[in-house]
Amino acid sequence: MAIDYPDQRDAAPLTNELAQTVLGFRVGELGFLLPASLHCEVIERLPVNPIPNVEPWFSGLLNIRGNIVPVVDLHCLLGASPGKKRYLFAVDRGDKAVALWIDGYPQILTGPDRSLQVPEALPILPVRLQRYVSGAYWCSGQAWFPLQFGQLFKALGCGYAAKDTA
What gap in Å lies between CA 17 and CA 153, rounded to an integer? Predict the structure, then answer.
């Protein structure tokens, strides 16, 4: 089965970052990369407020310093088993912020000149993610994917809204 990944040029900001340092985090068996310049934080001891009658992958809302942030469970979305220790991980700020459940703490990874290497063949990804991935990298025997989170979450929200109005 051929996998249609978006053009590598779509990930220009992350590709430039990979020459230096990126932030990696895991969800199940999958590793994801974000530019180190993007504001991210691990959130502890804040309650997630569930909302009834939503998709199972939408955990609810979180109040981070007065900003209402949606919480997405990629484990549920992708059918992955959650790790033993999960953390809430907020990505971006203000009205662009999204929180995710991740397995373990995020880690700093360095560019291709040091630890991240481009694989010869791209690993197979869940279908729901394929159009939002702009490539793959290997580090210490694990695959890491630059994921276009903004586009993925926008598509999830649009899909849910369209389903709700149908």
Answer: 22
Residue 1 lies in a domain: no
Domain count, the chain: 1
* Each residue's pLDDT tens digit, 48-58: 999 999 999 99
Residue 89 in this model has a pLDDT that exceeds 70: yes
Q: Which residues contact 155 (CB under 8 A, 6 or more apart)?
A: 132
- pTM of the predicted model as reported, rounded to 2 decimal places: 0.76
Range of the domain at 133: 9-48+56-161
- Return the exposure string of 105-133: e unless at least 16 CB atoms fall within 10 Å of the residue's CB, then b: ebeebebeeeebeeeeeeeebeeebeebb
Closest CA to 118 of 13, 3, 15: 15
